[in-house]
Amino acid sequence: MGDALYLQSPFVKEIERLGLAWAFTLKENQPDLLREAERFTQASPTGVHVEPGREIRYWHLPEVDWPVADRLVRVVKTVRIEQRQRVTIAEKDGQRTKSKTAAPQQSTSFYATNFDLGSISPLFIHEFSRSRWRIDTEVFQTITTDCHLKHPAVHQTTALVVLTMIRFLAYTLSLVFYHRQVRSHARGKCETFHECAKRIAYWFLTPAANTS
Description:
Elements: H1 11-17, E1 23-25, H2 31-40, E2 47-51, E3 54-66, E4 71-92, E5 95-113, H3 123-145, H4 158-182, H5 193-204
Antiparallel strand pairs: 1-5, 2-3, 3-4, 4-5
Helix pairs in contact: 3-4
């Protein structure tokens, strides 16, 4: 996953020359491409993927003109409809009661890529992009809660900034490895990253010597 602004530069040609694919989430920072994608996805979706409690409708546009970059790109649009529990409060005879009701929650996303799907479902682009988002979320949550470190910009000392960046990079690489190598090859239900990291840490713990 990359940033749309970087992919307009000659740097992307070097990426493609190496045979690498790129993708980015299409947002308002690329208004022309986004408007084209919205215009061509007004009809019925290309397909619908149904899971327990969730439905994903997707549109696949193999070639969409990207004027700023002077090229054609592949665009995938997804609409996720998930059933979420919503708490409602009702008051009767001076007493308040809480109840949970299922309510659909809808979210729409656009993705642009040069990846040649071939026989692969367009949903691959959606899942790939979502996995990057989950990694980012877990990284920032762990850095701020478990490591008790705020955003590096609030620190005035260079040493603290460098230390934060090193920890951030190390944790990100560990999480990428977990999602790409461990979780993707698991045959059954896979434990969470924190459980996996804890298990590995215990393997390296040296039992304390008995001094009694």
